[in-house]
Amino acid sequence: MAFNFIRAAAAGAAMALCGTGGALAAVNLPALKIDKTQTTVSGLSSGGFMAVQLHVAYSATFAKGAGVVAGGPFYCAEGSVVNATGRCMASPAGIPTSTLVSTTNTWASQGSIDPVANLQSSKVYLFSGTLDSVVKTGAMDALRTYYNSFVPAANVVYKKDIAAEHAMVTDDYGNGCSTKGAPYISDCNFDLAGAMLQHLYGTLNARNNATLPTGNYIEFNQSEFITNHGMATTGWAYVPQACQAGGSATCKLHVVLHGCKQNVNDVQQQYVRNTGYNRWADSNNIVMLYPQTSLAATNSCWDWWGYDSANYSKKSGPQMAAIKAMVDRVSSGTGGTTPPDPVALPAPTGVSTSGATASSMAIGWAAVTGAASYNVYRNANKVNALPVTATSYTDTGLAASTTYSWTVRAADANGAEGAASAAASGTTLAGSGGTATCTTASNYAHTLAGRAYAAGGYTFALGSNQNMGLWNVFVTNTLKQTSTNYYVIGTCP
User: Fold this and answer.
1) Are residues 422 and 447 in the same domain?
2) Distance between CA atoms of 406 and 178, rounded to whole angstroms?
3) Which residue in the list 112, 128, 132, 421 is annotated as catalytic?
4) pLDDT-based confidence at 15, cuts 50/70/90?
5) pLDDT tens, 320-348?
6) Measured CA distances, 230 to 277, 318, 320, 381, 403 (Å)
7) How many angstroms from the chain centroid is the CA of residue 384?
8) Is 275 a domain residue?
């Protein structure tokens, strides 16, 4: 859909942005002088759900507060894309808020997320457009109810009186307010970024409406913190002049999370530069961190329903842990230091499989000099929630009579991974429940038969949520049923 920008100047700026990306080589994310008690997070749509996840799971880090635009309660999807697209977006009356509160308390008691007591001093800003057809206002109503269990009512602002579609709202840039479409930024004559930041931080200096210095924008190496898992190799930051390495100011930090189809690959740098955050940051010494998903992520979305990891909403979730590591890096400086380029670790050798059962496999490898830990990948997906400090790992929850492939990466003390090992394959033993059943059919036929489901134009295996490709009658896959309502891509022996 063509952009319907209100101001010609804004349209010109958007066109200019198309040619600005990637002009400079990505650098390591700098260590800056940050007041760690002044760290906050906000996001739109999938970024809104992700902001809630970070706020709740890492409440010790984001105790200052969070802003959420078109999101929903913590763990709303409960690991199901059907729940995500249904009750958490289109039919919010079905959101089990009390259950999600209970889950939050349980996980906090288990140490999977930070103590909920950290949320008692938080400030929260919520926004829902009355015309939002993607994430209905009811989802934000449920989020308000969810926060009632943890955050004092006086600390929560909930604005839902602007006739806006699904978008980040500004007072001078984007589509018409009632328009739904890329770049999902809309001019509604309301400075949402400013309202949000002033609630989270209190009274701020007036925003800088002048042209911001190009040199304050940094494209940084995101692969230091994570590779794959739906995240891009680079992210972006806006660092006010006074906050740059060597500066004397102690600054605040705000993490901004884009929505689906809003990363730099999708809309160039429009979300990074034109959502209004940076003008407030420039006059108030707030560092803005813009992590980025990749085109490999489902619709460029953040993982808020489990497409990448079953632990997606816990501290151990790969995307969650990566963003936390970025925050820790930015906040680790004294104003004059930038970490050296990391020394890449070699690939582990001697990777092998052994001890197969019907549902598990042991993976072993030789130690790597300089490694602090290791990460194990099954079929290119990370399987260990916590770093592995030994030279072996038992992968569980596997399907019987199924062949898998594992690789291993060494990681240094900062969590930066080295090269991947050569793959080692292994086949699980036959289960006691008989021979698995395989069906070969088009993706369309699989969905009609209930072996798979469609979402965002793609097809996913029921249970395993494996991406099977486009939802149509032309793409064919073989699905193996390994248990009731659980299918994986594969063949039967």
Assistant:
1) no
2) 48
3) 132
4) very low
5) 999 999 999 999 987 444 444 456 789 99
6) 25, 10, 12, 11, 24
7) 18
8) yes
Q: How far apart are CA 217 and CA 181, in angstroms?
A: 26
Return the structure tokens found at 349: 């050798």
Residue of 486, 306, 492 whose CA lies nearest to 398: 486
Query: pTM higher than 0.70 for the full model?
Result: no
Residue 342 lies in a domain: no
Same domain, 287 and 363: no
Active-site residue, from 42, 45, 122, 421: 45
Helical (H) or strand (E) element with 381: strand 381-382
151 lies in the same domain as 174: yes
With respect to residue 9, please indicate whether it lies within any of the assigned structural domains.
Answer: no
Both 216 and 166 in one domain: the answer is yes
Q: Which two tokens stand for residue 224?
A: 């230091």
Can you give the residue range of the structural domain that contains 306?
22-330
Q: How far apart are CA 11 and CA 15, in angstroms?
A: 6
Asked if 397 and 257 sit in the same domain, the reply is no
Query: How far apart are the C-alpha atoms of 356 and 126, rounded to whole Å?
Result: 49
Other beta carbons less than 10 A from residue 266's beta carbon? 20
Residue 359, Cβ neighbours under 10 Å: how many?
A: 16
Looking at residue 396, what is its pLDDT? 87
User: Catalytic residue among 166, 229, 258, 446, which?
Assistant: 166
Residue 356 burial (CB count, 10 A)? 15
Beta bridge partners of 326: none
From CA 52, how far away is CA 47, in angstroms rounded? Answer: 9
Tell me if 413 sits within 8 A of 372, measured CB to CB. yes
The number of folded domains in the chain is 3
How confident is the model over 218-251, as pLDDT tens digits?
999 999 999 999 999 999 999 999 999 877 899 9
374: domain CATH number? 2.60.40.10
Nearest-CA neighbor of 230 among 156, 291, 164?
Answer: 291
Burial (CB count <10 Å: 0-12, 13-18, 19+), residue 433:
exposed
Task: Please provide the distance, in angstroms rounded to a whole number, between the alpha carbons at the two ends of the chain.
Answer: 48
- Tell me, yes or no, whether 116 lies in a domain: yes
Which has the closest alpha carbon to 323: 39, 32, 23, 25? Answer: 39
Q: Which regions of 196-285 does DSSP assign to beta strands (E)?
A: 217-221, 234-238, 251-257
Q: Is 45 a catalytic residue?
A: yes
**In this structure, are 308 and 162 located in the same domain?**
yes
Q: Within 13 Å of residue 50, how many CA atoms lie on the same side as its CB?
A: 30
CA torsion through residues 254, 95, 105, 199, sign:
positive
Tokens 């938080």 — which residue?
122
Same domain, yes or no, for 270 and 312? yes
Check whether residue 256 and residue 403 sit in a common domain.
no
Angle between helical axes of 318-330 and 46-57 (0-180°, round to 10): 70
